[in-house]
Amino acid sequence: TRPVDEKTGRAKGAITVDEVRRAGKFFSQTSGTGNWRIVIIDPADDLNRNAANAILKILEEPPKRSLFLVLTHAPGKLLPTIRSRCLPLKLKPLSDEALRNALGNLGLASEASDTVVSVADGSVSEALKLINYGGLDIKAAFDSILAKGQGGRAEMHKLADVLAGKDSETIYDFFVEMAGAHVVSAAREAALAGDIVRAERMARLSSQLAEKLTVAEAYNLDRKQAILSLLDDLRAAAA
Predict the structure, then answer these.
(1) Beta-carbon count within 10 A of 223 CB
(2) pLDDT digit of tens for each residue in the chain (239 aa)?
(3) What is the CA radius of gyration of the chain?
(4) Beta-carbon-side half-sphere exposure of residue 223 (alpha carbons within 13 Å)
(5) Residue 78 has what DSSP assignment?
(6) How far is CA 235 from the centre of its chain?
(7) Whether pTM exceeds 0.85
C-alpha cells in the first residue's frame, strides 16, 4: 500500500519502489512452515512507474509457492505486461442479505441497520467505516451541509476539523469516496432526466474535485482547506 510519510503522518501519493523492495526481501526469507507466501498490492493503481516496473520483474519470475493479489479499480490503466501475467477475477458488490450475514459473522448483526446496508452499497469495508469510524455521522453532516446551501458554515468547519484531525485517514478516505460518488450520481440523474447541461457540469466537477484532492495530497497542502474548498464547490453546484 502507499507508505506513510514520517514527517506528516499521512499516506504518500503513490506506492513507491521501496515498498516493492520490501516484498522482494520478504521472498528472500525462508518460510518457516513451507506454506504459500502472499503479497497484496492494494491498489495497483497507486504504483508509480518505478514500482510498477519492479513488480513486473517479480511477476516475470515469481518465487515458488507465491501468490500475488493485484487489486485494481481500473485494469485498463495497468501495464499490459502486468495484466498479461495475471488471471482476472471480477468482484461485485454483495447483496443486502450477504452483507448482513457478513456483518453478523463479525458480531455486528445488531448494527446492520437499513441505513448502513443502503449506504455501504454491498461493501463490508464501507459498512465497517459507517459503524466503527463514525461514517454515519459524517454522511449526516455532509447531507445537512448540502441541504443548507449557503448556510451551515460552522458545520463545514466542524466536519473539516474531524476529517483533518489526527489518525483520520480512514474516515477521510471514506468522505472523499462518498463526495465523489455523490457528484457522479448527480451527473447520472441529470443525464437520465435529459438535463445535458447539468450532467456535463457535474461530470466536469467530478474531474475537478479529483484533481484538487490529488494536488493537495501530492504537495501536502492543508487538508482542512482542501475539504472546505471541496464543500464550497459542491454547495455551489447544488445551488
Answers:
(1) 19
(2) 988 888 877 788 889 999 999 988 888 887 777 788 899 999 999 999 999 999 999 999 888 889 999 999 889 889 999 999 999 999 899 999 999 999 999 999 999 899 999 999 999 999 999 999 999 999 999 999 999 876 688 999 999 999 999 889 899 999 999 999 999 999 999 999 999 999 999 999 999 998 998 888 878 789 999 999 999 999 988 87
(3) 20
(4) 21
(5) S
(6) 22
(7) no
